[in-house]
Structures are given as structure tokens and as C-alpha cells.
Write a structure and sequence with these properties.
alpha+beta, four-stranded antiparallel β-sheet, rod-shaped
């Protein structure tokens, strides 16, 4: 019976030693992970300490609120700029032509200046041998209350195609 008690004590002792070794390995692994987390924490906080962490978070929240307010202001300004830009007569086209086939060259021309709403004007200059005539016609949604010549319609269509290519 004495042998059995010694064998049980030996098995129990070996089990405890193995358990201690396992706990020691786990402790070393956890210690290494803790040191890694601590280094990352120190790098993030800058050794400010736990007492300053609340101040840092509060300061970041305040800065975020200021940035959100600035963002809203910038969005409003951007919308205003887009609105004004759409009203600018930035879609321009010119067509040169010979108004009188019997003489001259392409000295006559029509220019269309329209905005994104197709409002603007068409300016036509007809150059003749003795005289030059100029006509300005307002455009609303690409049409004029005054009769438009084929050249004027062509230049308006060209300016409208530029509008479609930029939208």
C-alpha cells in the first residue's frame, strides 16, 4: 500500500509541476502582450497619463464640433457658388459665315452666350461691303421672342451642346 501512495504522490507531484510550467508559460505570454499594449497606449497618449486622457478626449470632441460647424458653412458656400456659377453665361459658341455670297468672305458671325438654364443672348454681326449691321437678341430657355436666323440657331445649338458636355 505504501507503494501505491508513493506512486499517487509522484503522479500528483508531476501533475502540479506540469501545471506550474503551463501557468508560467501563460503568464509570460500575457506579460508580453500587456507590454505590447502598454507601448501602443504610451505611443497614442504620449505619456500624458490616465488623468489627461479625459481632457484629450474632451478636446478632440470640441475640435470635432468646430470642424462639423465649419463643414456646414463650407457646404452652404459651395451651394451658393454652384448656384451663381449656373447663372454665369459660360457656355459660348461662335459661327462665322459669308452673309452675302456674291462678295466677301466669312466676315459675318454670330455668338451665343448662355448659362446652365439656357438663358443669355445671341449677338450677330453681318458684314457687308458698304455697311455692317449688328443684332443682339435675348434668349430665355434657348429661345428668343425675335426671329432667329439659321446661323443663330446653329450657334445656339452649339452653345447648348457645350452645356450638355459640362453638366
Amino acid at each position: 500500500m505504501g507503494n501505491i501512495n508513493q506512486e499517487i504522490a509522484l503522479i500528483f507531484s508531476v501533475g502540479i509541476v506540469v501545471l506550474i510550467i503551463i501557468l508560467l508559460v501563460v503568464t509570460i505570454l500575457l506579460w508580453r502582450k500587456l507590454n505590447l499594449v502598454k507601448r501602443k497606449y504610451d505611443a497614442m497618449i504620449g505619456h500624458a497619463g490616465v488623468a489627461n486622457l479625459e481632457e484629450i478626449i474632451t478636446e478632440l470632441q470640441n475640435k470635432l464640433e468646430i470642424l462639423q460647424g465649419d463643414h456646414s458653412k463650407h457646404e452652404l458656400l459651395l451651394q451658393q457658388m454652384r448656384s451663381k456659377l449656373s447663372e454665369m453665361k459660360g457656355n459660348v459658341s461662335i459661327v462665322r459665315y459669308n452673309a452675302f455670297e456674291e462678295f466677301g468672305s466669312d466676315q459675318s458671325f454670330s455668338i451665343a452666350l448662355i448659362d446652365d438654364h439656357q438663358d443669355g443672348l445671341v449677338l450677330t454681326v453681318i458684314h457687308g461691303r458698304e455697311e455692317t449691321y449688328s443684332y443682339g437678341k435675348p434668349l430665355i430657355k434657348g429661345e428668343s421672342k425675335y426671329p432667329l436666323s439659321p446661323e443663330e440657331r446653329k450657334v445656339i445649338s452649339s452653345a447648348q451642346s457645350r452645356l450638355l458636355n459640362h453638366v
